[in-house]
Amino acid sequence: MTHEQVYRMSFAKIYALLMAKAVKKGRSEAEVDRVIAWLTGYSAEQLHQLAQSEVDYGSFFTQAPALHPHRQYITGTVCGVRVETVEDPLMREMRRLDKLIDELAKGRPLERILRTPPAS
Q1: Confidence of residue 117 (pLDDT cuts 50, 70, 90)
Q2: Which end of the chain is more exposed for a tag (fewer CB within 10 A), N or C?
Q3: Dihedrals phi, psi of 63, to nearest 5 degrees
Q4: Which of 47, 43, 38, 44 is nearest to 112 (CA)?
Q5: For the residues 73-100, what does the mean pLDDT come to?
Q6: Residue 94 pLDDT > 90, yes or no?
Q7: What is the mean pLDDT of residues 35-40?
Q8: pLDDT tens digits for 16-36?
Q9: What is the band of 116 on the pLDDT scale with cuts at 50, 70, 90?
Q10: Does the pLDDT value for residue 120 go beyond 80?
Q11: Is 79 within 8 Å of 98 (Cβ atoms)?
């Protein structure tokens, strides 16, 4: 699947998949919303409205109210891809969200998922 095909996918479909992945592993819908809201700046209410709309996944990110300034601390691999090395900026944001939801599904505490900068 090309980047353009991913960008054109329905946010509603992606949101449902992310939600199902975490909820299946015992996490709450509210936790999923909190993680997505932390990364993008959308409120839970806005996320639910977008999940009922026709917005595509690319637009969901390009129109995000406020991408979190600490998102660069999201590192590691998801689906065999090293998040921090993804060259395309939009795809990197999408992979960051994948990584956060993976961590949530694996039982990582919410406080650790919502990155804070390392102490200096």
Answers
A1: low
A2: C
A3: -100, 10
A4: 38
A5: 95
A6: yes
A7: 98
A8: 999 999 999 999 999 999 999
A9: confident
A10: no
A11: yes
Three-class SS string for the chain?
A: CCHHHHHHCEHHHHHHHHHHHHHHCCCCHHHHHHHHHHHHCCCHHHHHHHHCCCCEHHHHHHCCCCCCHHHHHCCCEECCEEHHHCCCHHHHHHHHHHHHHHHHHCCCCHHHHCCCCCCC
Residues with Cβ within 8 Å of residue 104, at least 6 apart in sequence? 22, 25, 27, 31, 32, 35, 110, 113
What amino acid occupies position 67? L
Name the amino acid, one letter, at 12.
Answer: A
Extract the tokens encoding 39: 């990364």
Q: Whole-angstrom Cα distance, residue 53 to residue 116?
A: 32
Radius of gyration of the chain (CA): 14
